[in-house]
Write a structure and sequence with these properties.
465 residues, alpha/beta, 17 helices, 14 strands, binds zinc ion
């Protein structure tokens, strides 16, 4: 018979074994934190010395090749306003975001590939026929790196640069979409979502922690006036996507479920382009009018079940508020700033906080990399928290609406918003052109937008006198 201390020790080790087993099988409780990333625009051509190696290897060898680049070894970051994301910036953004873990999931609102990729690839004296494979490998490398770094569900939306043919070119059902569908881990157990993504680049999945919420990832490139079909088969996938969205919203509402919408290009006006074209008074819309009105019609019926819409594309820290005749159906679009500093902004990412019991979204916390200082001291830091700066404790449509009014009418609030707009880099809102940006927050059609700008300019003329 074993002595008491031996039995006690045996019991202790059994208990330890049991508790480690329970820890291994029991899912961690939700943290209420979501990482938001957008517009990475990774440039594998940033160091031309390693390009032939990248072309000749599959992505399993890319990390080693990229880490061997001289600019990475020296820690050289891209210049603000000049270049997209090189490996130094991509690597440091992933580490900085991983520093804020744990996350329940990650949302990436598109644009994995650098701007002007086709021409830059040709300039590297690489055969043009190799471009589709190289673009696909680059996108897969970015997706794989994000999924491996965070090891939680990652929901990816397609951006206008995410194409194996050219900017805004999509081939529905083509090789590029199929390759991405095969690599998106969230699609692995959901054949219907995987088939939807392969066909049109959009899909719908259950929320990973909330039972009554769905994540609907849209492909808003199909709704852009610049969209073209790389295979030019004459079909209208944008219209098919609206029908699909309508069915998904109907099903969600009839089952008392809410939705989070994810997309790359938000609806409404391109404030940057409109401000550049101010003299000619011409306006540029992000979506074709027909899709904007169909989408607005859907929100008129289903806006009350949309918790939030998450977008990117402008590269700036911004929002839109689509109002409907029924206030409870207005929809707030949160725009996540970009990792790429190409548009003169600092690289940035957001952490969104929600309640794991109610789903209510209470906060976004911003982190940025100030590229304006001395290169030796460049590091990612906390930038600001939405509630502390603006005084709202929930990211609801009515709070965004109130904030948009304050930005328009209160110079102090406008100055604060302007300071963070380009992730603390110099902001276009600090000039007389601020109405272009302010009006874009609440007005979605060209005529409403133009009247808003005219009335704001009249007001600022009066106050200037
Ligand atoms: Zn972009």
């Amino acid at each position: 018979m074993k002595s008491y201390p031996v039995r006690a020790a045996l019991l202790c080790s059994l208990l330890l074994l049991w508790s480690s087993f329970v820890q291994a099988v029991r899912p961690q409780p939700p943290t209420g934190k979501v990482l938001l990333l957008s517009d990475i625009h990774f440039d594998p051509l940033a160091d031309e010395a390693i390009v032939p190696d990248l072309v000749n290897h599959d992505i399993s060898g890319w990390e080693t090749i990229l880490a061997s680049s001289e600019s990475f070894k020296k820690g050289v970051y891209p210049t603000r306003g000049k270049s997209d994301t090189n490996y130094t910036l991509f690597h440091s953004a992933m580490s900085a975001a991983a520093h804020q873990e744990p996350f329940d999931f990650v949302i990436v609102s598109g644009d994995y590939l650098r701007h002007n990729f086709v021409n830059a690839f040709a300039n590297e004296r690489q055969p043009q026929g190799e471009f589709p494979e190289f673009a696909t490998k680059t996108a897969l490398f970015v997706l794989e790196t994000i999924q491996t770094t965070f090891n939680v569900p990652v929901y990816f939306a397609l951006g206008n640069e995410d194409s194996a043919c050219n900017d805004y070119g999509v081939a529905p059902g083509g090789m590029f979409l199929k390759a991405l569908a095969g690599s998106l881990r969230v699609l692995a157990d959901n054949p219907e979502a995987a088939a939807d993504f392969s066909a049109g680049g959009f899909y719908d999945l259950p929320h990973p922690t909330l039972l009554n919420v769905e994540i609907i990832v849209l492909n808003s490139i199909l709704w852009s006036p610049l969209y073209f079909n790389c295979q030019s088969d004459g079909s209208d996938p944008g219209s098919a996507e609206i029908k699909w969205l309508s069915a998904k919203l109907y099903q969600a509402k009839s089952s008392a479920r809410k939705v989070i919408l994810v997309m790359h290009i938000p609806p409404g006006l391109d404030a940057y382009k409109c401000s550049k074209d101010a003299k000619s008074k011409s306006t540029t819309s992000f979506w074709r009018d027909v899709y904007l009105s169909q989408f607005a019609g859907l929100m008129q019926s289903y806006g009350d079940i949309v918790q939030i819409a998450l977008a990117g594309h402008t590269h700036m820290d911004d929002f839109r508020i689509l109002t409907t005749s029924e206030p409870s159906r207005s929809v707030a679009f949160r725009i996540t700033p970009s990792i790429s500093p190409l548009f003169g902004n600092n690289p940035a990412f957001s952490v969104l906080h929600y309640s794991p019991s109610t789903g209510e979204i209470s906060d976004t916390t911003q982190y940025h990399l100030d590229l304006g200082g001395s290169p030796a001291t460049v590091q990612w830091t906390f930038e600001y928290r939405f509630p502390s700066v603006y005084g709202y404790n929930a990211l609801t449509p009515s709070n965004f609406e109130a904030l948009a009014v304050s930005i328009r009418n209160d110079p102090t609030v406008r100055q604060t918003f302007s300071g963070y707009y380009a992730a603390s880099a110099p902001s276009p809102l600090s000039t007389n052109g601020w109405p272009f940006y302010s009006c874009a927050q609440t007005l979605f059609t060209a005529s409403d937008y133009s009247s808003c700008i005219e009335s704001q300019e009249a007001v600022s003329c009066k106050t200037d006198k």
